[in-house]
């Protein structure tokens, strides 16, 4: 008896039977834009097909150039391109998989001056204003979708996903917010739906019955002027009648100010929306957003919220997600922690996506885990993310590895991150590594600092000794009211009601949230961000009602720029909004004059003006880190070569993504 009977139940779609209820959702990797990258993309999808996922969806391909997401972005518009895509579809089919191509027309989200939409209304997240299409122009776009689907079929795809959500082109016709037309493509809800329905109807006519059409339907726009529930339900029924095989859930436009996929969004937070929609259609319905573990997916399906689950990022983190669920090895899954650091943040920076916890993602042809030809004995010192990644990767290649950690637990900086409200997922990565250490037979030494003598006799020494908090030279820094972030977050030292946080990098922002917030349950989280009942409120948008802050917090930095400017593109705005919700007072261009019984004395600007005393009970220092290299220096003094990785190598702007990638790359060469 499987632990996940609903998840692993096959689904008969008539001409094709999916082996389970898991769809790998669309995710742009950056390999879609050039045909020359197709071999890499084929390797990426083939590895995931091998891992047993039921159906995969590619990143978005525009049906014409006006629909480009970015200039020269991915399109499927010619038979020549379709022939080249055979490489990808053949690779997937050879592994027994199925794959659909996503057709994505960006409309007013197109990042170029030739964009088009229902009306000439600029999106708040794009500098380019679109041109309103004429009636003929609209019909040409429909043709382009249909042609693109036909080409996808010619290319060997098993179907297409028509992207109708997230605020893209079709969604822009559906919502009053962006459709101000008065012709047959606007004015009434029926007219606004016409584009979506025509695209599906005409596509079905062209591609025949034995080809999947997934329609991604925006069930909660999460913007002002979004669709009503009546609109959503009517659209679903018409899309079904027009010939769609499956309806997938879309939640939130890109311009929405409600987080929908970051790590602080509770798991499966939006499946109730799909559950409300599902009874209105007969075709299978897919749910999505923040589902990352088989148990979570199983609960969603067992509750009857949906017929299938879609996950995108979890397949970057672990291509064998389904295989591990099928063989009851869920504890071996490398879980997506929804950090966005190496996937979406890369895509928005026009870099190739990867995964923080799996640097091999999207680099399958480059980073291959080949067995070693000469087994070595390797000592790794430090069991933070860098040391853990180095140890398990080297051991998996066949080396004998011993891992030394001074603390009583593994995890390093992730042990601190997991304590922050909304960052609990980081515990999953520690759990994953703990299990992988067991499976690969790494010998773990905990609770004792390794010295030069402990490391005698090893062929290779990898030092991932990490960092210590920086102690800034401020008069009074040794006052009893001063604590480091480690003392606050990990050691739970008492903190007063009024607090100044020195340093507004990632840790300062995290600590401010730690001091002001308790982890909300789903209802409290929805209230905080204004997520209402989609069946009652247009766009599912309610008035946000944040919980009051636990403390009065000042967050300070010396720089003039925006607080948290260095945070990720897709997560920084969520952190800044969370701080605003808790009325954290942000001070910039600060000079730290001294700390005494009165509090923290500050002035502002280069002329040290506007002297002010922040009468705080506690000062928490989050002023970055210094590398720990004593052992490296001692070993080098004895003439022994060492490999220095992670924060011990470069502490400035230390980040786990770089640490894990550096460690993995090193371990692949040892
Ligand atoms: P950080 O990003 O280097 O920020 C520390 C801040 O402290 C600096 O921005 C600096 O700002 C201030 N500072 C530095 N030296 C100081 C001094 N001598 N006196 C007073 N202030 C000083 O370090 P972090 O916040 O510890 O973060 C470490 C790494 O973890 C970063 O790469 C960060 O991105 C990553 N991280 C990321 C997240 C995330 O959500 N993505 C969360 C946590 C950590 P001023 O000079 O302007 O004062
Ligand atoms: Fe998930 Fe983070 Fe990896 Fe993206 S980088 S797939 S969010 S773990």
Would you give an account of this structure?
The chain starts with 10 loop residues before the first strand and ends with a helix. The chain has an eight-stranded parallel β-barrel with strand order 3-4-5-8-9-10-11-12, surrounded by seven helices. A five-stranded parallel sheet has the order 15-14-13-16-27, covered by helices on one side. The protein contains 20 helices and 27 strands. Strand 3 (22-24), helix 1 and strand 4 form a beta-alpha-beta unit. It has three domains: 11-348, Aldolase class I (TIM Barrel, Alpha-Beta Barrel); 377-468 and 626-667, NAD(P)-binding Rossmann-like Domain (Rossmann fold), CATH 3.40.50.720; 471-623, FAD/NAD(P)-binding domain, CATH 3.50.50. With 670 residues, the chain is an alpha/beta fold. Helix 12 packs parallel to helix 14 and helix 16 packs parallel to helix 18. Residues 470, 472, 502-503, 505-508, 510, 557-559, 566-568, 571, 622-625, 653-655 line the site of NADP nicotinamide-adenine-dinucleotide phosphate. Iron/sulfur cluster (SF4) binds at residues 313, 316-317, 336-343, 355-357.
List keywords for this structure.
alpha/beta, 20 helices, 3 domains, 670 residues, binds iron/sulfur cluster, FAD/NAD(P)-binding domain, TIM Barrel, binds NADP nicotinamide-adenine-dinucleotide phosphate
**Stretches with pLDDT under 50, minimum 5 residues:** none
CATH architecture of the largest domain, please? Alpha-Beta Barrel
Annotation field: number of helices: 20
Cα-atom Rg, whole angstroms? Answer: 26 Å
Strand order of the largest sheet: 3-4-5-8-9-10-11-12
As for the number of domains, it is: 3
Overall pLDDT confidence: 96
Helical content class = 25-40%
The total strand number stands at 27
Distance between the termini: 42 Å
